[in-house]
Design a protein that fits this description.
The chain has 951 residues and is α+β, with helices and mostly antiparallel strands. The protein is built from 17 helices and 34 strands.
Length: 951
Amino acid sequence: MHNKSRSYLVTGALWGGLPLFLACNAFAQPSLTGQIGYINMPSARVGEDGTFSLGYGYDKPYGILWTSTTVLPWLEVSGRYTSIEGVPGFTDQQYGGGYGRYKDKAIDLKLKLWDESEWMPSIAFGTTDIQGNRLWKSNYLVASKNLWPNLEVSLGYGQQRISGAFGGMRFTPSFLPNWSLVAEYDANDYRSDPFSYRTFAAERNKGPAVGLEYQWGWLGLQVARQKTHSSINAKIDIPLNLKEFVPKIQEPAYYTGEPDLPSRPTLTQWQNDPDRAKALATALGKQDFKNIRIAMQRGNLVIELGNSRISNVGRAVGRAVRTALYFAPLETREIKVVYTELEQPVATYNFYDLPTLNDYLLGKIGRDRFLQTVNIKSGRDEEVQPLDSKTLALTLREGIDVNLLTNQEGDLIQVTSDDTEDNRLHFAPKMGVYFNDPSGALHYDIMAEATYKRRLGKGLYLDSALSADLYNTITSVKQSSNSLLPHVRSDIADYKRVKSPKLNRLLLNQYMTLSPNTYARLSAGLYEEMFRGAGGQILYYPGFNKNWAVDLSVDGLQQRDVNGWFGKRDYQTTTALASFHYKLPMGITATMRAGRFLAKDDGVRLEIKRRFRSGIEAGFWYTKTNGNDITNPGTPAKPYNDKGMFLSIPLNSLLTFDARTVGDFSLSPWTRDVGQMVMTPGDLYEILSDPKRDIDSYDGLGNFAERPDEQNLPQVTPPLPSYHPWPAIRLRLEDSGNRWLELDDKGAALAAAAVATFAAAGLDRPVDRFFSKRQDNRLIRNWGKLGKDLPIAAAALSGAAFALGDDRLSNTGLIALESSVAAVAGNSVLKLAVNRARPGSGGDSTWRTQEPGESRLQSSFTSNHSAVLFASVTPFAKEYDQPWLYGVAALGAAGRAASRDHWLSDVTAGSLLGYAMGSWLWQAQRNDSRYRSSLIATPKQLGVQIDVPLR
């Protein structure tokens, strides 16, 4: 059986993956840094949307391991890990003797500003090494044009490492489409590279280089010759926007009643014979459905269930309903399916017309006719009574399975046992990889892990994990942590060095549904390898067509000892994090977390990720707290902030059958204490976001019927994501420009603003003198803090109105944000022109200029805070007729004078400028129907409709 399974896996890869692999050869070529370009120089091209590339290059004296992802059609993000030949990573052999060469990480960005047209080249701006040591930093602007279908040329200019003009060309002959000739003028200033005086870089100069490239499917190789040496670069491209990489040749077929076609009972027979419900539960259980609850309510068949394997909710519900039609009583009027996760209702599917349902599943009618008989509600339908465990028809004990390669978790080998109550025992080998420790650039840990999940009651689960170390290289990590923060992660090597079996997790989780859109979890026990405790989480996840969710998690924690059982260390803490999740176009999700982290540091964490068509998610996080981590590369002047990148890969895109298992990978420092979070025991948003996304997508049914004639429908196979905001932006710009031309009182308004500013200037000295004598007054200090914080709050509330409000509120919030940006731009022009010194900087004149060397953008005239505050509140005050908002803005703006950050005339001019921007843009753009667009998704068409009323 296992040999047959492996044969299917290989055959599936050959039938589906190899033709796809060979067909995908139209990728732009990356340079040695990972950015699309030539040999060392970039071009204005970016890869195909969703392309993930991984490669290695050697360009003496540098070895470069790089990766690059086109995260948006116009944005390329590259990361590289550069080793320098001849330079040791650490001079202290006892501390870092096993580390090898000096290595440095860098992140590069390329933003495509303009697409190529018939006459115009594509134009891109790039910046390299944007974080950390910034040893390789550069900024450049480059243009690229196809002069002929097979000849591309580029010309650009850079600063810093790329110093001066550069260019490149690529020629791909039509008779050898897999081969290309490349040439470039390399403008890198190698002699300014780090340690250049000790390496071959000192012998390198700017100059020409030529190379030869070969592309075979996803694989590519480049060899190049420069004046003093040769280089090589090899890579693989993976298109993340493919739906799947391997066909589902092992996917079990939906239920057809074979081999013994069941006979449908009458309602009386169903009620009198429990075996009828048991037969339905048995058929569902064999299709990986879990927590099955079945009951008849007022002539309707109600089924509660979840599925542990099928990745799409619509397809899972379709299989459940198809099966139920074979067993439902003859008098059944409706079938209601409550789809659950850990027994928490996610959505209720109501099927009102069973003959129409049956005809649709048999392919006799179209989807549009069927949709008239379906209703989907978020959470549990109020008309459906909750079903308890007594309505369970059957619990299946499936015994123990041994799987090689072909299993849902993607393990090389595993031993599993599970049942329909979602009880599960799983045993498999695991491997962890750790980078960039002084004792060695790469460490790994191989272990055997057994996990056991047990349902104890309604929504109550025991979750445990026991591991035994088989082999690791972490024992070579001898350096003790020098972190000045509590060692919440920096002592991880001490835990990994213990080779005896350890109880990594022993946790009770109680999941609850408080309302149709509100979920909660309570947890207690051993959370993870390093911490134990008790806590909980509450999540509000709105119904359909809402693109946001919010949750709060609080955990009281105590650090465990290194032995991995029930011992403890002295460190205790309470973490509390509020999280806001917002879904943006192009499959992007932004999450903002704020609160207390694991080392008792307070701050915020931003996470941004994009989900590609294959289901693969790529993203990054950045954390800013008051932890003040000054361990290298952090310094007292610039503390280290936690950051990293992550990749989430659903295994169903790689397997020959559907699966829900996801592999998570992250790249970040593993011995840092700042900005850390405990490993959350069952994060509610992570559990519910995927099924909620399926239900919110199009009609919420996905591949419900699994009909071959529907596989090209967008509901079944979503098209490549796209986002075109330019039509609405163009309309707003046109309306704003037209409104500006229509304003007849611009001159009078400007004169009035000048009079008010000059009048305030006459009071600059006495007002500043008044506040100068009262800086120790608590009321004055708090007033100054209000003036600093209120504009930030106003801008944040404007953003929340834009993101979460109805059409009117959202449009007003957007106008407020636009007004704030316009006010800051106008303020910056005035600051550059006037360059006024701030109060308290010395001198007799209130209009003296700043000292040489001070930034003009930080000068006093005018006040940015005042401008942003008035720009933010003015659209709301006018749209909703709330003039008191101007009083709040004036109070906050005056706080800038109270804190002596600005003169009174600075505040007056900034406030007037902000009001003017807000009023102008509100008048121009208040008719939000001009910019409203709607997505059209039917079985026959897919597009975007933009409503543009005529004036």
